[in-house]
């Protein structure tokens, strides 16, 4: 062992004596040779970059030797993407960017090779949190519903769970800070549980991503990218405030970040407070109020051939669980029943860069403490205070090691080892799922093969999950849970092909398998799940869910017109679902966990048009559809209604340059009637919502101020979403909501 450590020391010493290189150059406008200021130059693999100065010049120091992808981007110009060789101390790269009315492209982080979307074999949706907030979203769960094919199962406005092409809960995996977010996501009323403060963008993989992420990514991945550290030798800060008229909601955050050549840090503090929301009928939904406090910090150290960073996120939320339209009040403190959730997310990411290859190690720890307080009535019929009825603490240690092999010819390859150790502990008066330990381990390999006009990506993965649960209660009595010991294994494959059929037409075909091991609730439940008013009985003999999904996409893109068409077919074996058996226990319907093969199919279509020469005008439209059914012909529950969104967007800056970052939009979104419902759902009628917004950057005493205004459901429409958990109680969704926002860059 001593010799091993000595050998590793020599490897690291040899690594750090590699030459430190630099890159410099000038960026110009291709049309008029104008020097461009504030152009972004960024190495996605190195996570290092800078911007050009007033003369269009840039310089990046402390770079390793080897071949690395570089991205050069600027609003109003076509994004430049190329792999360059860094060597000989100083490399010169001067570029002329071509003007383009199409939006600036960004690097996709959720897929393994860090490419622009046009270079990716797998179709990934990406949008910035700023754009979602500009649309008036109260929180992240609401904001993601602006992405085609993505919806949210809601319990009021404070609790939302992502739905990707009809799949949700443990079938959709959320990643934040580069690690999986674990927060008892099996529960219908368990929301996303993360603040949008300090999140830069969101990426959505619509389809099985088990090859990249393991179990629970059977339906897709919601990948949250944290804000980047500041560029070298800069300091940035900002303050952001929002007010929402419907919930009298206050939302704000403030952050500061700074970087030297080697050391970087950032801190962001945020919070929100909302009263009960008001429906289109101008009634407040009792106990739909919620409060949140959030802290995100980060520290990084970077040398030429080595980079490491540590990030920490603390989040505390009090979420009311609405059940009726009762007392009309604007109190902000939750009343019973409510959830109190505290999360700690700690992650570290380290990279070693060799010549044309690299090693990455990501370690994570999450602690999720979920408490639920319920109404309690004493012997004399009076309400009494007591401790949490449910108190579950979930602790997860995760690891992800990847080796990016040196590119051989046209082939890039990544091999990896991933896994986690997870413990669930109960401290409350009731037990919904037992104390248990889960262990995962997965091995993967994936390659990207480049051709002149096409690309192929192939991958293989093996996973093993072990679940051991403790016995709870007394045999024969209500609530008894037997001990559990199960092992689940899975092989998964993925293959993708992208080809540029013509100069402006790209086609992608992806076929991938995925899997999901049953969760603790599905295996062991034996009692009332208060949040859903169901008596649930688990099935210890449940098998893995397995699926195969085929995705076909067609994209046409020119400077002033874009069109896309995506279709998918998802075949799932051993789909796990709940079904009532017709009996009651203490006034609650009994639901059993069963398995049956299922199919989901549908897709999205959209267009984006700039009517030249009116490049300031954008006409956008997208349509999403999904159908889900069981093998016996019955419909799957919680399948989103088909929807069609049409937007007129204006860039005021292109009309008047004095209106810096000026924009305006008008969106009309229609949800079709959902009549394909499961046996314990009811049909939902059609409805349409009208939204608008505008904003710009103004300067007061040389202080830039971003101001935005948006109004959702302008006509105060009274409606019920098919994915609202309050639908069974006849409670409608949120009415008119006007958002006033202000941001101050410091």
Short description:
This protein is mostly beta strands. The protein has five helices and 41 strands.
Properties at a glance:
single chain, 746 residues, mainly beta, Immunoglobulin-like, Maltoporin, Chain A, 22-stranded antiparallel β-barrel, 5-stranded mixed β-sheet, 5 helices, 41 strands, 5% helix, 55% strand, globular
Provide a descriptive summary of the structure in words.
Mean pLDDT is 89; it is low at 4-18 and 377-383. Strand 9 (107-108) and strand 10 form a beta hairpin. This protein folds into two domains: 18-100, Sandwich (Immunoglobulin-like); 179-745, Maltoporin, Chain A. The radius of gyration is 26 Å and the shape is globular. The protein is mainly beta.
Overall shape: it is globular
Total strand count, please? 41
| SS summary, helix count | 5
Number of domains: 2
Kindly provide the radius of gyration, computed on alpha-carbon positions and rounded to a whole number of angstroms: 26 Å
Percent of residues in β-strands: over 45%
Separation of the first and last Cα atoms? 52 Å
Per CATH, the architecture of the largest domain is Beta Barrel
Would you tell me the overall average pLDDT?
89
The largest sheet, given as strand count, sense and whether it forms a barrel, is: 22 strands, antiparallel, barrel
Going by CATH, the homologous superfamily of the largest domain would be: TonB-dependent receptor, beta-barrel domain
Structural class by sheet pairing and helices: mainly beta
